[in-house]
Specification:
The complex is a heterodimer of chains A (about 110) and B (about 110). Chain A has about 110 residues and is an all-beta fold. Chain A has no helices and 12 strands. In chain A, strands 2, 5, 6, 10, 11 and 12 form a 6-stranded mixed β-sheet that branches. The model of chain A has no long low-confidence stretch (mean pLDDT about 95). In chain B, strand 4 (about 30-40) and strand 5 (about 40-50) form a beta hairpin. The model of chain B has no long low-confidence stretch (mean pLDDT about 95). In chain B, about 0% of the residues lie in helices and about 55% in strands. In chain B, the strands form 2 sheets. In chain B, strands 2, 4, 5, 6, 9, 10 and 11 form a 7-stranded mixed β-sheet that branches. The chains are: A mainly beta (about 110), B mainly beta (about 110). The interface between A and B is medium-sized, with 27 and 26 residues.
């Protein structure tokens, strides 16, 4: 079965600190990759996505992610977090010939003002 | 406004009483899916639909039914709810299957007592 691992379940940072959230997946073939954010009490929204091309993708609100094929990873980064980034972050994978998304278990980010 | 609409947002019911959660999208998307979100488990796909009259099981389909009689609607049916189906449910739609960004509804918090 496919799996998506987010090793950091809960991260606490101070404002202006740098952020990196890990995401690893188990599928060996071509994949489409996504990061979603869920603000408290809200639905999931897309932060960024990778389909092909430049492995460093930029998303909204200053977030970026790097696809490293050899490591089956798609880590999310932000150089300087803000209190408004407090949310839960989900990595998702779509194996290329599958009609399913597979989500990680999520990482709760708490940014202290 | 492009959106995915779920109803109801909150529901408390008793074990065994059939219920339906509705989902409607106004973006003419072909792909629709249902997820349940549980703490520490992330989002798990229940069912998905590639188009009208085309539905398939996700990873946790037991105890659920769906139908897709019209492109815009994808209701989730619990014929005989049980307490282990207490969860937060999200409907999502995508324009081109699971290969593209998913647009999520606001969620339905279901409690089965």
């Amino acid at each position: 079965a496919q799996s998506v691992s987010q090793h950091n379940h809960h991260v606490i940072l101070s404002e202006a600190a740098s952020l990196e959230l890990g995401c690893n997946y188990s599928y060996g073939g071509t994949v489409n990759l996504f990061w979603y954010v869920q603000y408290p009490g809200q639905h999931l929204q897309l932060l960024l996505k990778y389909f092909s091309g430049d492995p460093l993708v930029k998303g909204i609100k200053g977030f970026e992610a790097e696809f490293i094929k050899s490591k089956f990873s798609f880590n999310l980064r932000k150089p300087s977090v803000q209190w408004s980034d407090t949310a839960e972050y989900f990595c998702a994978v779509n194996p290329y010939n599958f009609n399913k998304f597979y989500f990680g278990s999520g990482t709760k980010l708490n940014v202290k003002p | 406004e492009a959106q995915v609409t779920q109803n109801p947002r909150y529901l408390i019911t008793v074990t065994g009483k059939k219920l339906t959660v509705t989902c409607s999208q106004n973006m003419n998307h072909e792909y629709m899916s249902w997820y349940r979100q549980d703490p520490g488990l992330g989002l798990r796909q229940i069912y998905y639909s590639m188009n009208v009259e085309a539905t398939d099981k996700g990873d946790v389909p037991e105890g659920y039914k769906v139908s897709r009689k019209e492109k815009r609607n994808f209701p989730l049916i619990l014929e005989s709810p049980s307490p282990n189906q207490t969860s937060l449910y999200f409907c999502a739609s995508s324009p081109q299957g699971a290969k593209t960004e998913a647009f999520f509804g606001q969620g339905t918090r279901l409690t089965v007592v």
